[in-house]
Write a structure and sequence with these properties.
The protein is of the alpha/beta class. Strands 1-5-4-2-3 form a five-stranded parallel β-sheet. It has a four-stranded parallel β-sheet with strand order 7-6-8-9, covered by helices on one side. Helix 4 (85-96) packs across helix 9. The protein has helices spanning 7-11, 25-30, 58-67, 85-96, 111-115, 145-151, 165-170, 195-204, 222-232, 244-250, and strands at residues 3-5, 18-21, 38-39, 76-79, 104-107, 157-161, 177-178, 212-216, 238-240. One of its GO terms (molecular function) is thiosulfate-cyanide sulfurtransferase activity.
């Protein structure tokens, strides 16, 4: 289970975990970053020419983490400055390439939230190069087109579209419910809403821990955040459609409007 950790939790463990900043390099260098953080910009681990969907490929991933001084048994905390959606994609990518989910953490909030109470720096960070070894996860949440298509007829499944309402109305999978990933985030704190609010939002869409949850968006970025949140909340039957609408439409999957 991947989890979401508070700024207070991280501030006490900065020397014990590997902190990854997925913002653009100019933000990391020019605006500042968390102490001891390394820069792995989002665009560097996002590729349409790698593995399935937008995954970068095993070799690219291994090279990125090796250069950042990260090993396969390290604890990682990722952050961005966009409520965690890009950092969540990093966390899910690590999970899909075999990193221990118990050692993967998303910072609750983002750089701006951290900067309100804690120190940032523009100092460069030198790390020893490691040899990161990619492996197959013991259990992968990835599902393919055929699995999602069959889930449309499964009464125990909830197909969750994490895009915004306008996108949803333009066309979505039959029977899908709309849960804009931003509904789970508090605009003021920039982190997750309180647990009781999250439960109420999820339950209103029939998204409960006893159901089979199938997530999709356009290119699997936004579902990464929702996946991390649901995992953090204790959901254990979550399916991650990496191909999302990009593949679904290319293969003439059924869509409905409204």
């Amino acid at each position: 289970m991947v989890d979401v950790v508070s700024a207070a939790w991280l501030s006490e463990r900065l020397d014990d975990v590997h902190v990854v900043d997925v913002r653009d390099g100019w933000e990391f260098d020019g605006i500042g970053h968390l102490p001891n953080a390394v820069s792995i910009p989002f665009d560097e681990f996002r590729s349409a020419e790698g593995d399935v969907g937008m995954l970068p490929g095993r070799d690219v991933w291994a090279e990125l983490l090796s250069a950042a001084g990260i090993s396969a048994d390290d604890d990682i905390v990722a952050y961005d400055d966009t409520h965690g959606v890009f950092a969540a994609r990093f966390i899910v990518t690590a999970l899909l390439y075999g990193h221990d989910p118990a050692k993967l953490h998303l910072l609750d909030g983002d750089f701006s939230a951290w900067n309100r109470e804690y120190e940032t720096t523009t100092d460069s960070v030198e790390v020893p190069v490691t040899t990161y070894e990619v492996s197959d996860p013991s259990a992968s949440p990835l599902v393919d087109f055929e699995t999602v298509e069959s889930a449309l007829d499964d009464p125990g499944a909830v197909i969750v579209d994490t895009r915004d309402e306008a996108e949803f109305e333009e066309g979505h999978l039959p029977g899908a419910v709309n849960l804009d990933w931003r509904e789970l985030v508090d605009d003021e704190t920039r982190g997750l809403k309180p647990r009781d609010e999250l439960d109420a939002i999820l339950e209103s869409g029939g998204i409960t821990p006893d159901r089979r949850i199938v997530l999709y968006c356009n290119t699997a970025r936004r579902i990464s955040h929702t996946y991390v949140v649901l995992s953090h909340l204790g959901y254990d039957d979550i399916e991650f459609y990496e191909g999302s609408l990009t593949e679904w439409e290319a293969r003439d999957g059924a869509l409905v409007e409204g």
